[in-house]
Amino acid sequence: MVSELFKGLREEELDIEPTICARCGFCTFVCPAYLDTLWDSQSPRGKLFQLKDLITKNKAIPADFAERIFKCTLCGACEEICQVNIPLLRFWQLARGEIATLGEWPEIINFIDNAIQNSQNIMDIDQDDRLIWTDMVDDLVEGRVQKQAEVAYFAGCNISYKGTLAHMGENTVKLFSHLGIDFTLLGENEFCCGNPYFVAGDFESGTKLADHNLSELKRLGVKTVVFNCPGCHRAFSHEYPHLLGKEAIEGLEFLSFSQFVLRMIKEGKLSFTNQYPHVVTWHDPCELGRHQDIYEPAREVLRAIPGLELREMKHNRNRARCCGGGGILKGTNPVMSVRVSGRRIEMAEATGAEIMASECPSCTMSFNDGMEGRETSIVFKDLSQIVVEALDIE
Amino acid sequence: MLKERQLTELADIVGEDYFSSEEYMRKLYSQDIAALPGLVHDLLDTSVSAVAQPTTSEVVANLLQYCLKERIPVVPRGHGTSGYGGVLATKGGIVVEMTRMNEIYNIDRENMTVEVGAGIIWGKLIEELEDEGLTVAAYPSSAPSSTVGGWVAAGGTGIGSTKYGGIREQVVDLEVVLPDGQIIKTTKAGIGLFQGYKGLDYMYHPGTDKYQWGPSGHDKPGDDVTGLFVDSNGTLGIITKVKLKIIPLRTIQPMVASFRSRKLMIGALKDILEATRPFYLHFITNDFYRMLGEVDKAPETIGEWIVLSTYEGSDAEVAGEVEKFHHFVSRYGGTVESDEIANHEWAERFYPLRIKRLGPSLAPSEVYVPLEHLEEYLEHLDRHFKGEKYAVEGAIDDLGEVAALAWFLDDERRKISFLMGWYRSLDFIKLGLQHGGRAYSIGMWNAGHSLSFFGRKNYGLMERMKSQTDPKNRLNPGKVFPASLNLSIRFNLLILLVATIAVPVVLWFAGLLVPDLIMAYVPWLMLQDVMSVFIAMVIGLLIGVVVVEIANIVPITFLLAIGAHFMRLGRRIFKGSK
Ligand SMILES: Cc1cc2nc3c(=O)[nH]c(=O)nc-3n(C[C@H](O)[C@H](O)[C@H](O)COP(=O)(O)OP(=O)(O)OC[C@H]3O[C@@H](n4cnc5c(N)ncnc54)[C@H](O)[C@@H]3O)c2cc1C
Ligand code: SF4
Ligand code: SF4
User: Fold this and answer.
1) Which of B20, B21, B24, B291 to mutate to test the interface with A (most CBs of A within 10 A)?
2) Enclosing H/E stretch for A88
3) Mean pLDDT score of chain B
4) Which of A352, A369, B256, B372 is 20 to 30 A from A104, alpha carbon to alpha carbon?
5) Residues B474, B477, B479, B483: what is their CA dihedral angle, to the nearest 10 degrees?
6) CATH assignment of A7-101, given 3.90.1150.10, 1.10.1060.10, 2.30.42.10, 3.20.20.150?
7) Long-range contacts of A130-133 (CB under 8 A, 24+ apart)
8) What is the pLDDT of residues B499-556, one digit of tens each?
């Protein structure tokens, strides 16, 4: 048993990284978890220091430390700034994997695990209800479920099952119809993308889901998959090839909503003519920005909308602060998550914008929670909402 | 170790959420950036009993008063980014970490100053000032994580120092809590503070709670003693507020040139410094640049000796300087590299430790050397450190000195050779001094250089104040003013055990070799029965106690000075061993 400790980190030769850490502390003042407490025990530097000791002494991660490792949004800000280029995101994922092998996962993750095992989605709701989000656009999706088509929309569990997020899927479907795109939905064959597992460090369980989703898409002849959820998007474009090899995703391309809209604009298939006289500030979702280096498409889309003024927050693009929703923090530490989102909302308010926009169900939940009960004039809107409003499509 | 009662009372003073005595927290806050060889931890136990994060100057004052009364050593800490041992405890006690005192109190555009809490991070201050069209004139390359108070206390030069000087030149005024809990403003305290301090003529008014009281400061005018607190490593007081000079935010233009040889690069550096006024003039040696290449951080350049010269000022001023720069680079056969490379190097100014990945450990060392002597110094280093993997960079300050920084690649997992490798950091400084240089920062490891670093007069004043405000040396002991070793319990026990066993063994041997001699002069030392063995062991134990007592008063600086010779030799023998 003892020699099995830190197996994941050792296999990927990341067990040396805590020794490589220079302790410069650059990662501290960008880390939402550290900034929440100002205690180094909560910072990447502090956690690496403690892990260095445990790894060299081959000791198991104690329960209180495991809890702290899960007080992390996997925002990737630490990796971005790191003095010695430690692949910290992967490192935190594997550290969580280590916690999984010790049987110390937080309760909420055990719940999600059971839910996925039972019902292929994070909510433990029957897969028959996968398309519940299409209720308001049922006419637009009629005949589209599991049809052969080159474009697929992958909604993901959050948008599929959480009523407050359904509008994102509705908007995308409206836009598809507006553009006359022949698209397909996987319906009850859309399984969880596996992101919760990747976030919790259990890659093996994610593999089955990856396998299933990819073969479904291939079966339907899909070439392009569009996502509103950067978590799902990242799972498909980064984790799947990591797990199954690059060949597994050959012939498929994965586009975020903003990338898709921008392509339509560039191909001359979409243009904005109506005035949309609002000041908007853009929040880069971590899983799209830092994790995948996609920063500009959304900005280009917003700039293409007449009347819309885009104002940047002080920390934008690769320096954007986290919404507080990543890394399942919303589940493991909901109060802390709201505090983190509050700090980001403050930055948005400082720009004087009326709308804080992003493209991510997790950010949407975080900011809506953060704005609840807060005296603020700023509202949050998903990019899909702005696009649909600007185009005035029903 | 502190008593339970003391921990509770300290937590009461600072606030429960801002106090921790948990083991992992104590370990975390007993470190700076340098990895220490295992044996050093045995010779010098750096552990502390608790960590406090005060939120106001008054809380700091209350903490210090309490610690003085209870005889608890205090180690001030910014964000622990220094590597000179300044934040390592030498006598246990508590760490007082300042990052919660991070406010910007006042931006004074008329006098161009900003007043901040000592625990604010440079990066945050710079960002906030930028919103106002302002900036600081100098900042350390650790700006994304180091505190303003930490740099004031540790001293040094950084980005902007070629034009505007180091942190010493930036500080206008400090609020300091003296070891006895008095809060002073350094511009108003007067030289008397250092000449014959018997407590200020004002006292605090006790509040309602036992240790909750606040100051009623009426400051005294007098000579400015602000400078005496710079570089003092928190030995004279805890800095709580800092007033700094600021400058308008203007154009910044980084330029990079590469050269084919050391000689050409140094020639160009001298001329550039003479003919232009760079904001930041910095160089990297060819070895360093190659190592950067190994971690993919060295864009392709014509030469491998790299100079970064950054200009700051109005557009017209900057354009004029850039033109001159081109001229001097070509005079030395150098190449002015592309804007892309210049921007890359400018962005990399915060990343001096990139090459640590090649270690995985790095032993750093830093010393000021006059630019005129740089060439001989670098040549000397080459000879002296033949066969060692190391990289040198340097930044030139406003006095024409080079802050030369060396990074020795090492592997702390090879315990013996890592320990022996320590001599290199000490020798790098020693050679620098031989070439007319001076110590960079004192902290703990350089405490042996304090006298020459501060100058006899200032050091005398500092010593005097220390002995009057903190006679028992509780505030950051071992820094600036050399202190003795603090052996770990493990090591103390080891000495006792070895002595207890060694004495009977030696006597037994002596009994075999020279029995007549012993019987003639000290017959009672002859091991004859169980009782005599027991007595010998007791004698051994007593000798052990004496050795422990003596070892615990050996000055660290003394040990380093004599240890360097052994380590140099040992390194040759053990290099490459596990
Ligand atoms: C990547 C990197 C780059 C660096 N670049 C530079 C550079 O360009 N120039 C340079 O000079 N140094 C540099 N350093 C060293 C270090 O960052 C500086 O010395 C820095 O100013 C220390 O700040 P800190 O807040 O981390 O202080 P700490 O390391 O926590 O403390 C330093 C010393 O100051 C004392 N101290 C801290 N705060 C207070 C206070 N409020 N009151 C009294 N005493 C206090 C401590 O006891 C200690 O003796 C660099 C370090 C790193 C890791
Ligand atoms: S991923 Fe984000 S929250 Fe997690 S340790 Fe890094 S900076 Fe902190
Ligand atoms: S930024 Fe990287 S090297 Fe610096 S403390 Fe954080 S993890 Fe370590």
Assistant:
1) B24
2) helix A88-101
3) 92
4) A369
5) 140
6) 1.10.1060.10
7) A130/A160, A130/A186, A130/A187, A130/A188, A130/A190, A131/A160, A131/A185, A131/A187, A131/A188, A132/A160, A132/A161, A132/A166, A133/A159, A133/A160, A133/A161, A133/A165, A133/A166, A133/A169, A133/A170
8) 999 999 999 999 899 989 888 888 888 888 898 899 999 999 999 999 988 888 888 8
Selected residue with higher pLDDT from B576 and B547: B547
Domain B251-439 classification at class level:
alpha beta
Q: Which element (helix H / strand E) includes B439? A: strand B438-439
Indicate the pairing of strand B401-410 with strand B335-336: unpaired
Match domain A271-391 to its CATH number in 3.40.50.150, 3.40.718.10, 3.40.50.11810, 3.40.50.620: 3.40.50.11810
Least CB–CB distance from B351: residue in A38, A41, A83: A83
CATH fold for the domain made of A118-264: Rossmann fold (3.40.50)
Cβ neighbours, 10 Å, residue B457 = 8
Q: How far apart are CA A148 and CA A217, in angstroms?
A: 9
Q: Which of A23, A38, A81 sits opposite B144 (nearest CB)?
A: A81
Q: Is A25 in the pocket of ligand 3 (CB under 6 A)?
A: yes
Q: Of B159, B117, B128, whose CA–CA distance to B244 is shortest?
A: B117
Q: Is residue B202 pLDDT above 60, yes or no?
A: no
Q: What tens digit of pLDDT does each residue of B97-136 get?
A: 999 999 999 999 999 999 999 999 999 999 999 999 999 9
Task: For chain B, give percent helix, strand, coil, nearest 5.
Answer: 45, 20, 35
Block residue for tokens 């600081």: B136
Is the CA virtual torsion B389, B46, A33, A49 positive or negative? positive
Q: What is the ipTM for the molecules in this complex?
A: 0.96
Tokens 């154009």 correspond to B251
pLDDT at site A122:
97
**Rounded to an integer, what distance in angstroms lies between the CA atom of residue A206 and that of residue A195?**
7
CB of A27 sitting under 6 A from ligand 3: yes
Beta strands B134-136 and B238-248 are antiparallel
Q: What is the CATH code of the structural domain delimited by B4-98?
A: 3.30.43.10
